[in-house]
Hints:
CATH superfamily: Bira Bifunctional Protein, Domain 2
Oligomer: single chain
CATH topology: BirA Bifunctional Protein, domain 2
Number of helices: 6
Amino acid sequence: MANQSTYKIFNYSDLGQIDYKSAWDLQKETFDLRLHNKTDDTIFLLEHPHTYTLGKVAEKENLISTSKQLKELGISVYEIDRGGDITYHGPGQIVGYPIIKLSDWKEDTHEYLRALEEVIIKTCAEYGLSTNRNPKYTGVWLGERKIAAIGIKVSRWITMHGFAFNVNTDLNYFGGIIPCGIRDKDVTSLQRELGKEIEINEVKEKLVKNFQNVFGYTSIILKEKNNYLKQLENSEMSFRRSGATEKSYET
């Protein structure tokens, strides 16, 4: 059973826009610190430059773009160790990476997935959008339109990776992939649904508040971005240790 008395504090840092490799390194380092109880639970909110990531079960055929198109559009491609298929990250999309110890909450990955969905469902509700879950697929939906994708890794009951929430995302970039390997569904964003650009920092504030409430934290410690970037710069861990690799595809 979870020891709720120890599950009270989490660190939060807004990393702004950060490239995928740097964020991956930072996740790995924070995971190791959390594993050895050298830091509290942590969530990073950030944006990535244009990137496609393929999870462990991804079908290569779901990457439609040719290598020439990827180069012309400046899109990086990574194979990583989260669950799920292929997805897109880019400016205007809030990516959340919680590194938390589930042993202090619930040792249940399905409950954890539902809780992440709940954070985004509650955030969408604050903008007047009634979102839902799809019994077949993870993520958050407005009918047949997916507004947030979720892909996680849990090792020794500590989480990595997380969610990608389309706020002001350029949805055209999803045209280069079959998002999450789902051929008969559409993607959407807050901007598309509300018909106007949304203040992204406001959305981050709502996400953090809802994350705190859903997971039952009582205190938030705000960590400055520069502290983490300095930590990353001084780290001896190499990106190659992570198991994530940038790929070039000839299609």
